[in-house]
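Researcher: I've been going back and forth with a colleague about how Electron transfer flavoprotein subunit alpha/FixB family protein might be arranged in three dimensions. Neither of us has a model we trust, so I'd like an independent prediction. The organism is Candidatus Enterococcus murrayae, in case that matters for your notes. Sequence below.
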Amino acid sequence: MFKGLILIDNDQIDYSLDLMDVVNRLAGEEETFVYGLGINLTEKVKGLDAVINVEAPAIHSKDSRVLTDIIEQVHRKYQFDSIIILATEFGRMVAPRLAMRLEVGLVADITDIHVDKRGKKLVRPAFSGNIMASIVCESSPIMASVHPNVFHGEHLTKEPEYIDFIPEELKASSIEVLEIVESEQNGVDIREAEVIVSAGGGFTQPIEQLQDLADELKGVVAVSKQLVDRKKAPREIQVGQSGKTVSPDLYLALGIYGSTQHIEGLKNVKEVISVNTDLGAPMNYLASIVVHGDAAEFARKLSSKLKE
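Model: Here is an independent structure prediction for Electron transfer flavoprotein subunit alpha/FixB family protein. You can compare it with whatever you and your colleague have in mind.
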């Protein structure tokens, strides 16, 4: 039996439960048993086989050092075949600490999994997103981090067994834990948006000019990595492997070339409209409609037409 552990983030419980899909894929044809680890859980969860519940009111659930101690103790008892963690700001503090503690490798930001007779291969972008690397994991447990919204769990109706776990000798970190708050537009995270108006390196105007168009389409504004690197937009609205993974009904790509790093941030998008002066841009080959022209001019004219 293949035993997997997923870390439940109280702030992103739905995305945490999607990690069950990672464990099931890693198991291949083996039977699976998926545990979830919750620290001071704020709500009941479904779909898992068991939930290891740690009630420690004095411990902040975002204390990465203490959480690493807890996961290590839980693993020593249950001996998991895989440990999967969301690649949030907090998860990126926990995962490498835990990997060092358990003396295993960590495959960060995985986007796909292949299991065959040659082994369990985790796929992730490499060389700034220019290629996809398949990494064979031979150590145990297999450790990986995953962006929210990349994998998707299904049929989450099963009532799990709840197991109380009392960790030993926990000492709170002396470092003050600050709450990590991600910015939203009109209360909507770009990962939850049905319509996204996204600007890339070919969009020459300030992105604030896109807000009117996004409002007309009842959507949100996003950007590619190029604009974040140029300090023209915050990372919280970046789409891509180093940003967020999105699944809108409509993705309006304005001046986006479409590198592998960016494409990996698009999952199950229903319709793509690409506006670009470069007809050879990879994004055009994903699009239902391609507009050959200046992205900023197109956005301005479309916004005017919609207002009319």
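Researcher: What would you highlight for our discussion?
Model: I'd start with this: Residues 61 and 255 are 41 Å apart (CA to CA). After that, consider the following. The radius of gyration is 21 Å.
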